[in-house]
Specification:
alpha+beta, 3 helices, 8% strand
Length: 50
């Protein structure tokens, strides 16, 4: 992340890495491991299948 985000100019900011005690995906109300799973993005062809 650092090598990708670093520009060397003011405004690069800071990255804090801290323990996470709980994660919630707001849209589905999934918690913890389920909330962290990455979903495949929907595509236009997916929406036409319905």
């Amino acid at each position: 992340m650092v090598s990708t985000a670093k520009t060397g100019t003011i405004g690069d900011g800071k990255l804090f890495v801290i323990p996470v005690s709980r994660a919630i995906r707001i849209r589905t109300i999934e918690e913890n491991e389920a909330a962290l799973n990455i979903e495949e993005p929907a595509t236009l062809s997916d929406s036409r299948k319905k």
